[in-house]
Every structure is written in structure tokens, then in C-alpha cells.
Design brief:
about 375 residues, alpha/beta, Rossmann fold, Uracil-DNA Glycosylase, subunit E, 2 domains, five-stranded parallel sheet, 13 helices, 10 strands, about 45% helix, about 15% strand, QueH, iron-sulfur
Length: about 375
């Protein structure tokens, strides 16, 4: 029999449960309670519940599930549907879910109740504390008023979520928040449409015979792939990575379980140079982008990154790695997991060797394990984000 006090932990989602349970487990006998009837659509609810059950199984705590009474929740927030995020609707929603938690804690004889909601930087701890203390007086169960985002709680939840390969949602959960998210996405897609027209008409590098910018994608793509420059095949097709090197790249993705069409539909695909640099000195191979071309195209790449808003950035080849990460970057980063703030946005970066040089690169001592490790890391990130 545990001598620790019993605590009922309201869980809003699996990622937030990770660091909160980690912080509580040594002090309390924790039971989880997944109660989020506001989540829409139904398959989103099912996915978040399944991920929470997965976390409970891995971390080793009991989990109870409340009824998904969506009609009752909608009645509670009636008249507040147009409130902005962090507005009055959110306060009512916090209280709605916490009251059910407090009631259950009282019925089952728990000593404490609390919620994972405070680990999110988007949730007001002051609101949660006031609601919890009021419900504590009403139901006679102590409310643990800890702000779990403190002491890097949110950062830790990201780390553990990555380790456990957890799904991370991109909206709070209710229909109004989903609709607001859809409205923002539509506006961002429209902004990207105007940007892509501007990029397509770029004639800045007048020394190139056929300046035809080659890129593919849209706004809000979880994956962004950056190569060196279009080759002759890309110039003809106007489709990135459509030549022999591209075919090998898509084989790598297929080996990880992701077909080219699926990757393309979820990715923004571009290159350091947008236009064909021409033939190299030997008259046979495609030339790398010139210094002028790189300088002219870098602002475009930054804008592409802004519109794509990727969570994973794949840099294919030394030219791409150095253009984005600096001259000291390159093939030494193959096989390394890199996360940094780039152009104002935090992103996970995977560096791959250029497929055209693959016959040479892995034959150098120590390179093959790096390449295999890079593909393993890429597969993990794809499973988490696509």
C-alpha cells in the first residue's frame, strides 16, 4: 500500500502529461484522468486519447477516461463561440473540465487533484489556480496549485514527447479553435500564393540563360527540403528533385515508408539556387550555384521558410547545409540531430549527403554509419510530424 497521497491528474493531452507526471510521481500516487469532451472532430479526439493511453502505459500510471459529452460542453460555452483564444470561452472550458475532475476526485477518495493544463505557455495559471481553489472548497479535495511550465516544464515535455514519438496537435481542440485555425491557415495560403507568383517571375540573375525558378509547395508544410540547385532535368520538368539524384532521394524516403507523392504533398521543396546554374567547366555535369546566385537567392529562401513554417528541415548536400547553417557546417552534421532557431522559428534540422555524390561519400571511413544514422533520425521525425 502506497504511503504517498493520492492525486487525480486531469490530462489534456499526452505530451503535457509527460513532464507533469515526471514531476509528480515521487511525491504522489498519481492516477490520470483524460477528460476533454470539447475535442473535435471525433478522429482527433480518438487520436489524442490513444496517445494518452500510450503514455500511461509507458510511464506506468493508471488512467481513467471521462465521457465525451460534447453536447453538454457546447451548452456550457453557448454564446462564447466567437470569443478569441485565451478569452472567456477558455475560462469556462477550464472550469468545466476541472469540475468533473474535482467531482471524481471526491467520489473516489483522492487527496488532491490538479491538471496538466498549466504546463502549456498558452494557458493562464492564475485562472487555473483560482478555478481549482474554488472547486477545492466546493468538493472538499485539495487542489495542487503548481505551475508546471516553470523550471522548464514545457521544454521537458517537448523532449520526452520526442523520445516517445508522440503526436503533437496544432490547435487547442474545440470546434471554435479549429475553425479559427482553419481561417488563419487560409489567410496564410493566400499570402503564399502571392509570394509564389513573385518568386516565379524573378529575373534578378540576368546572366543565366533560362532563369526559370524551380520550387514546389505551399504554406504550412511540416517538412521542408532544400537542395543545391535545379539540374537539367528540373529545368525541363520545373519540378524539384526530378532527375537521377532526385530519384535516389525519393528512394531514401520510400525506404523509410514514405512514398514520393505523400512526401511532396506534405513538404515544401526548393533549393539554395532557384534557377539552373548551367553546365560546369567539364561541359557535362551541372554547375553548382555561383556566389552571385547564392547571394541573390538567400532572401528568397528565407521567405520560403517563413511561409512553409516547417517543423523538419532537410538540407541535402554540403551547399545547402553551408548556405543555411554557415560555412563551418557541411557533411560533418550528417547523422547529427540539430535543433535551432532559424530565421525566427525553431526547427529540427537533418543534413543528408547529396544523392549525386553518394557513391563516393559513404566509401570514406566512418561515413556510412553517419548516413544510416541520418536516415534513422529522419524516419523518427517523419513519424512524429507527418
Amino acid at each position: 500500500m502506497s504511503s504517498k497521497p493520492r492525486l487525480l491528474l486531469h490530462i489534456c493531452c499526452a505530451p503535457d502529461a509527460t513532464s507533469v507526471y515526471e514531476r509528480l510521481k515521487d511525491r504522489f500516487d498519481v492516477t490520470g484522468f483524460f477528460y476533454n469532451p470539447q475535442i473535435e472532430p471525433g478522429d482527433e479526439y480518438d487520436r489524442r486519447l490513444a496517445e494518452t493511453m500510450k503514455v500511461a502505459g509507458i510511464l506506468g500510471f493508471d488512467l481513467m477516461t471521462g465521457e465525451r459529452d460534447l453536447d453538454r460542453w457546447m451548452k456550457a460555452v453557448k454564446g462564447l463561440e466567437t470569443e478569441p483564444e485565451k478569452g472567456r470561452r477558455c475560462g469556462v472550458c477550464y472550469a468545466f473540465r476541472l469540475e468533473q475532475t474535482a467531482m471524481l476526485a471526491s467520489d473516489k477518495g483522492f487527496d488532491y487533484f490538479t491538471t496538466t493544463l498549466s504546463v502549456s505557455p498558452h494557458k493562464s495559471f492564475d485562472w487555473l489556480r483560482d478555478i481549482g481553489q474554488s472547486l477545492s472548497r466546493k468538493y472538499g479535495v485539495a487542489f495542487l496549485d503548481e505551475d508546471f511550465k516553470k523550471h522548464d516544464g514545457f521544454k521537458r515535455s517537448l523532449e520526452v514527447s520526442r523520445e516517445l514519438n508522440l503526436y503533437r496537435q496544432d490547435y487547442c481542440g474545440c470546434l471554435p479553435s479549429f475553425q479559427e485555425r482553419q481561417r488563419i491557415l487560409a489567410e496564410q495560403e493566400e499570402a503564399y500564393r502571392f509570394f509564389s507568383q513573385e518568386l516565379s517571375s524573378c529575373k534578378q540573375c540576368t546572366e543565366f540563360l533560362e532563369p526559370a525558378p524551380v520550387f514546389e509547395g505551399g504554406a504550412n508544410r511540416p517538412l521542408m527540403i532544400v537542395g543545391q540547385a535545379p539540374g537539367r532535368h528540373e529545368l525541363t520538368s520545373l519540378k524539384p528533385f526530378s532527375g537521377p539524384a532526385g530519384k535516389r532521394l525519393w528512394q531514401w524516403f520510400e525506404g523509410l515508408g514514405y512514398a514520393e507523392d505523400y512526401v511532396s504533398s506534405n513538404a515544401y521543396i526548393t533549393a539554395v539556387a532557384k534557377c539552373y546554374p548551367g553546365l560546369g567547366p567539364n561541359g557535362k555535369d551541372d554547375a553548382p550555384p555561383s556566389t552571385i546566385q547564392r547571394r541573390n537567392c538567400l532572401p528568397w529562401l528565407e521567405q520560403e521558410f517563413f511561409h512553409a513554417r516547417p517543423r523538419i528541415l532537410v538540407l541535402v548536400g554540403s551547399v545547402a547545409a553551408k548556405a543555411v547553417l554557415g560555412k563551418d557546417a557541411g557533411m560533418k552534421l550528417v547523422g547529427e540531430w540539430v535543433q535551432k532557431r532559424l530565421w525566427g522559428r525553431k526547427v529540427t534540422i537533418i543534413v543528408l549527403p547529396h544523392p549525386s555524390g553518394l557513391n563516393r561519400w559513404p566509401n570514406m571511413p566512418g561515413n556510412k554509419p553517419k548516413f544510416e544514422r541520418a536516415l534513422t533520425l529522419l524516419g523518427e521525425e517523419l513519424r512524429r510530424n507527418l
